[in-house]
Amino acid sequence: ESTTVVVIGAGPAGLTVANLLRRCGIDCVVLERRARDHVEQRQRAGIVETRAVRMFHEWGLADQVFGGIPLSGFLEIRIAGESHLLSQDDGSEGPPARLCPQQVLVQNLLSTYVADGGDLRFEAADVSLHDLTGERATVRYRDPSGAARAIDCAFVAGCDGDHGVSRASIPDGVLTAYPFDHGIAWLTVLADAPPSVHPLMAVSPHGFAAHFARGPRASRFYLQCPPDDHPDAWPDDRVWSQLRARLGDPALVSGPITERELFQLRSIVHDPMDHGRLFLVGDAAHIVSPMGGKGMNLALYDAEVFAHAVSDFLHHNDDTGLRSYSPRCLRRVWNDQEFSHWLTQTLHDAGDHPLAGPFRHGLARARLDRLTTSPTAARAFAELMAGLA
Ligand code: FAD
To answer: EC number(s) for this protein (predicted)?
Structure first.
């Protein structure tokens, strides 16, 4: 069996690559380890940034892929109970960011691709990559009946996340990893509780907290906690009382908690993002700490750069895009890492991050003061949130 591109993984990165390649008339096969249900129910990110919204418009896919509603236009930062609304107007023309839960984007990308006649194979087990530096690469796997299959291809798009097989197939010593650990954990809670009016991030002496919409009746909350904390130490009562204290909102409406997880705030960049015929796309190449909501949006960016590069090569015999894929993506990755790191430090240090100390606390308060009083600082922030800087 043979195709032009084998895409490993059907998350936001893989499904965007697959849809864009089809729009360019390029054959591909998507191999996904999990079942369709699992992929379609995985709840994570919730905001598609302005840049990515406009990208789907340019490809004629906006109507098919978006659910949700356009973003309110404001972000609320609450400092010790006092509210500051930051305009998300970045000064550019065109459609704004959207509140669109990741699973809705994934469901829509998936059905659009399949309706277009796209080839997507779920429950592909034991995927392995071969001959990545040869004339053609080969991807082997087992189909759900257990039969061994092999597909030869010109390119492999490694879209299988941080724990996937793609990056692990690159020989030792080829990539350099740049990891960073913030020394902070977040308890994340999904609840059937009314969403906040605006995306809300709160600084308080009890620690950082945030409240984001995940649909008309669902919310995702975040609570800063020590790295060695455990979700079992957070029964419902404690979650809601801490949220009320940190958000400075004694009237916060609670609801059934549907998911409760603890994760460490960490980032990593792998450089370069390609090896021979393999191109890493999205979380397979980089993880960005969640503050600023850039993880999924970076995956969408990489996907478009890759699709353009393959199209230029196949349709115009121009390999510039393929050769510049890694530096071009990494430029944006580092830009967004910097933004996320800055925002993470600022919003934790301004509260009571145990490692911050009084000097960093003072710096963080000064940054927030500038952000909430200088229109120029607020505009620069809006541009970064939009993904236009
Ligand atoms: P993934 O979504 O991880 O998809 C990888 C796919 O590959 C999966 O379907 C997986 O099953 C499949 N796969 C893995 N291994 C194999 C294999 N060996 N063979 C075949 N298939 C394989 N980002 C934001 O922008 N904003 C947010 O608010 C935000 N919040 C988040 C909250 C949480 C709790 C988490 C965990 C993440 C959050 N992120 C957020 C990050 C965002 O979810 C990721 O950046 C995004 O999912 C990356 O997409 P991806 O397609 O690269 O990888």
So the answer is: 1.14.13.2
